[in-house]
Amino acid sequence: MPLSEWELWACANQVLRAHGDKAALHVAEQLGALALRQDAEGIAAWQEIARRIEQLQANPRPSQRN
């Protein structure tokens, strides 16, 4: 079952929080592991997550202050 838009954005955000400037490396590692398993659905999901990570990095949200 494919991930929803919300889930894809949540995954992208979590990868950025967890891996910071090494997020692209993490995505590449995930894609490599999935390619070895020939998991086309997993590859497609991580490619979508990667696109969202790129968008988040290109348009960072301003920090919110309380």
Describe this structure in words.
- This protein is 73% helix and 0% strand.
- The chain is mainly alpha-helical and 66 residues long.
- It starts with a helix and ends in an 8-residue tail after the last helix.
- The structure class reads mainly alpha
Could you tell me the strand content as a percent range? under 5%
Helix content: over 70%
Low-confidence stretches: none
Helix count from the secondary structure assignment: 3
Please trace the helix and strand order, writing H or E for each element: HHH
| Strand runs, count | 0
Spatial extent as radius of gyration: 13 Å
User: Tell me about the biggest sheet?
Assistant: none
Mean pLDDT level: 93
Based on Cα principal axes, name the global outline: globular
Cα end-to-end separation: 38 Å
